[in-house]
């Protein structure tokens, strides 16, 4: 009764007390709701996606994605020794603990090699030509020697058997055949050279 009479005597204090109690109840309800909706405390291990193909990723999303991870391909890198469309890396990493529905960012190998421009190797020495190929992300294929007034100088550049002009776009790491001059009187011959020192 004393409390009731106190609140009747001081109605402002009564209103303030009600506001504080209602605010406290609202805060408790919000905290409990957040814990429920954000799956507080529930974490799942990130699967290993490395070396999976695009087909295997689609299968995972359809049939095995019980925690509803969102797979996002955010980068592609050219990897000459890896099949196109294969996962190279992931973020977050394998075995990390994350919440349900977390976005998993994947980097995959390019489906199609990037294109590079063919440089002009004609009139360069063989050594200069090899250096130029390497600096343009191309490879030396065969070296075919032919009689010429200009020994050890590139006379022609060929791609898949055909003459190729400067500026023509071809796949990264393509092999280029070089027709190179040799001293007169020597027989023409073909040499497979991986690199020239």
How would you describe this structure to a colleague?
The chain has 197 residues and is an alpha+beta fold. It folds into three domains: 2-37; 44-109, Trypsin Inhibitor V, Chain A (2-Layer Sandwich), CATH 3.30.10.20; 115-192, Trypsin Inhibitor V, Chain A (2-Layer Sandwich). 28% of the residues lie in helices and 30% in strands. Strand 8 and strand 9 (162-163) form a beta hairpin. The protein is rod-shaped and about 125 Å long. The model has no long low-confidence stretch (mean pLDDT 83).
Feature tags:
single chain; 197 residues; alpha+beta; Trypsin Inhibitor V, Chain A; 3 domains; five-stranded mixed β-sheet; three-stranded mixed β-sheet; 4 helices
Distance between the termini: 104 Å
Q: What share of residues are in beta strands?
A: 25-35%
**Largest beta sheet: what is the strand line-up?**
9-8-11-7-12
| Number of separate structural domains | 3
How many helices? The count is 4
Structural class: alpha+beta
The low-confidence runs, each spanning 5 or more residues with pLDDT under 50, are none
Query: Would you give the CATH topology of the largest domain?
Result: Trypsin Inhibitor V, Chain A
Order of helices and strands: HHEHEEEEEHEEEEEE
What is the averaged pLDDT score? 83
What is the CATH first-level class name of the largest domain?
Answer: Alpha Beta
């Amino acid at each position: 009764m004393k409390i009731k009479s106190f609140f009747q005597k001081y109605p402002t204090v009564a209103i303030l007390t009600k506001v504080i109690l209602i605010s406290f109840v609202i805060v408790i309800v919000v905290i409990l709701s957040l814990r429920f909706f954000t799956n507080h405390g529930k974490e799942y291990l990130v699967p290993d996606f490395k070396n999976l193909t695009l087909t295997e990723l689609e299968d995972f999303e359809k049939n095995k994605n019980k925690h509803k991870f969102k797979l996002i391909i955010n980068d592609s890198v050219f990897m000459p020794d890896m099949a196109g469309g294969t996962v190279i890396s992931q973020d977050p990493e394998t075995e990390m603990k994350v919440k349900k529905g977390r976005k998993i960012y994947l980097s995959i190998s390019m489906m199609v090699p990037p294109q590079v421009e063919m440089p002009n190797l004609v009139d360069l020495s063989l050594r200069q030509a090899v250096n130029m190929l390497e600096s343009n992300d191309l490879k030396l294929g065969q070296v075919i020697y032919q009689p010429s007034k200009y020994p050890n100088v590139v006379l022609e550049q060929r791609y898949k058997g055909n003459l190729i002009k400067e500026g023509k776009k071809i796949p990264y790491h393509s092999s280029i055949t070089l027709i190179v001059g040799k001293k007169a009187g020597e027989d023409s011959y073909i040499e497979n050279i991986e690199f020239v020192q």
